Amino acid sequence: MRLWIAKLPMKKYDEVIEYLLDLGFTDVIVGYNLGQVIAVKDRGMKAHFLVKPFRLTKDQIGRQYALEDPLGRRYIWNGMGCPNHPELRERSLKFIEEIMSGYEINGVVLDGVNFPSFTNGINTFTTCFCEHCENKAKEMGYDFKRMKGDVKGLLKEAYRLSEFLPIFTAFDYGIPPILSALIEYPGVIEWLSFRSACIVEYTKEMFNVISSFGRNVEYGAILFPPTLAWLIGQDYHQLSYYLDFIQPIIYRTGTSPSCLNFELYSLIGELLRLNRDLDEESVMRFVYSLFNVLHYNPPFDREELKEKGLSSEMLSYEYVAAKELVRERIPVYPRVEIGDEEIVTSIKNLKKQHLEGISITSYEAKLKSRLEEVVKIIKLTT
Length: 382
Ligand SMILES: [Zn+2]
Hints:
alpha/beta; eight-stranded parallel beta sheet; two-stranded antiparallel sheet; binds zinc ion
């Protein structure tokens, strides 16, 4: 059983490392703190280097890296630039080359390797149609014009949800109304496939950099929950050919991108903003049905969805889905939040699904007793 943890204190970490070792932790995900890499390794744990390839530095935030929607509007999402920007790609590959040349790290973990989700609104989600993506689409054989036209068409539909919502309710949701939308806008599927192909390509490029060193270095990625991964360019199955493990983010609460409750909250808010004639409950039912999350017992009050989140069973469902998507080819270490008040219950549920390990998002000094309880449950053999 592997126990992972990330976000150790930047300074005075020696005592924390000792504590985690005693507790049974095996792997630490380390940011740009090379002293910490050495300290973790010295204590016999594995040090994995975290890389966020498309994250912009303060002086890089600028138009040239921004993602573009089908109406030509440009955005920086979550501090990130376009995954097809050649400079960002090259910079991150070179960076890992430098790190691997100078330090004996045990692994590389990708984070934020995706296109935008819903948290900045639908417009930012419907990217990217920048010149670099246009070149990439041509190179890969995708019909850029059709993708752009159809994503634009679907985006405009989002502004008049009340016109097609009755079709969904008439069918009681399910596949038929989704197919009818996709048949009208076939370029949307092509666009999602293009997003995935770009992320797979980048993951492959990083694989080749790492393997060129001929060392035994593990390579993994932190991914969005399976329910959302298709939309942001993370195809678990395709990615599993290049990775040694994955860590799906399965937070039932939270207010940042990739938290399932917050992503749904953001999408619902955006649809309500664009369709003032619709009431909250019908939009929530639409979104929950579309994503098939009604069995996660979501609340029908939008603020409650943000504050209280989804039920703790959600973690097990998403974990099993992740394992099925990678067809058990590589280990799946679910990434969970120690700050979640129901984490102990969630871990008990997860344990029933044959865990190979778990990844704790961050070390929190004030939550040590909860961490100890979680580790105790994980280590129980029955
Ligand atoms: Zn782009």
